[in-house]
Design brief:
By secondary structure, the protein is an alpha+beta fold. Strand 7 and strand 8 form a beta hairpin. The strands form 5 sheets. A 5-stranded antiparallel β-sheet has the order 5-4-14-13-12, sandwiched between helices. The protein contains 17 helices and 14 strands. 31% of the residues lie in helices and 17% in strands.
Amino acid sequence: GEVSADQLEQADYTDLHQGSIVGQYGVENTYDRFLRGRAGQKLIEADALGHEKRTVSVEKPRAGDDLYLTIDLRLQKLAEELLGDEAGAIVALDPKTGEVLALASRPAFDPNVLSRELTAKQWEEVVQHEGRPLTNRATQGQYPPGSTFKIAMAAAALETKTVEPSTQIRCAGGYQFGRRFYRDWKAGGHGLMNVTEALVQSCDVFFYTAGQRMGIDTIASYAKLFGLGSPTGIELPSERLGIVPSTDWKQKVRSEQWLPGETISASIGQGYVTVTPIQMASLTATVANNGVPVRPRLVKAVMDRATGRVLELPSVPLSRLSIRPETLAIIRNALAGVVTEGTARSAKSSLVTIAGKTGTAQALSLRLGPEKNIPKKFRDHAWFVSYAPVESPRIAVTILVEHMGHGGSAAAPLAKQMIEAFVKLTPYEPRVVQSGSETEPMLTALRTQDIHD
């Protein structure tokens, strides 16, 4: 869009003038310095009447560079189609490289419309739209993670020896704490559960108990270890952080002491805990990658239009999590069981093995009755975080659909479709590639203007 008056006063835009076109949103904004190019100019000598007498010098315009995006256009289109008219987000990552294969947010908007001059009324219609289309839900939507948070909880409980792999906790349908009874999602209870079984069946009581034993500050430290509460570093502006609550956080933000009952809610990803879909995709990719996080990235390379030279941008692996391999192995085994025998059997595929975790996040603190009687805007959000194949993960997919109820029924089937499409489109071929070699796979060139959220 056209550079604004405020931007013209900033250092990054001092060489521009009113009417210049710059990247105003998304990856075009982040990489504007590459894409913008440089305007040409002509210096002339003129007479007193302003008539051109001669040309003193001419500086030809320089075209902006091209970006090679990591987005797979076929998966991107599928993600947008799967969301349809529902509000939500889908993120697909390569867990080894952090490459973002798809990043969809709904409702969306046509950036070409906003790049033109709008009337005040037209702009007001966009910003006042109840669906908030200008919010990129993948990186800016902040939601309770629900039971997907149990991945971090399981790691914390095992690493702190709060529970051993064989420790069993009895679930009778709820957890009594003081005068309040915290219900499990399964009214009759799950019976005796170890940590693997608790993840597979998403037993709330197991994690209520473990969370109360650990305390909120221990929970917070492991949530942060997995990257929650911090930006992932994806190359998009205004990424939100979510909230990882702790005793210090509540005292600082609300000037109140932490209450023990709040730990129980936080233990199943409710209460004050919020995350973004890109954070949960990154967390899941880290588990799939055996505890090695990789920064999510949207740009694979930059091509200099003047020389044709392609500069590849490397992936950015981060420090391995200080979590024992045996802990990660237990969690990975449980996530595979979630799909084969647990709460996400709707994601089971005959084409590829899938691991994942369902989540149902309350949009309201108090349920107003049976879900069918609740207005849709007050219903729970549906989560599913996943990766595949189980044996050698190549893709991690996170689904968040607002107000669609249970993750197992509303979100898991969408992840299955994304993963199966990926497997069909990219048959597995072991790659041993040396940078710059003739056998290196060709990059798919996509100008950023060809990609629409």
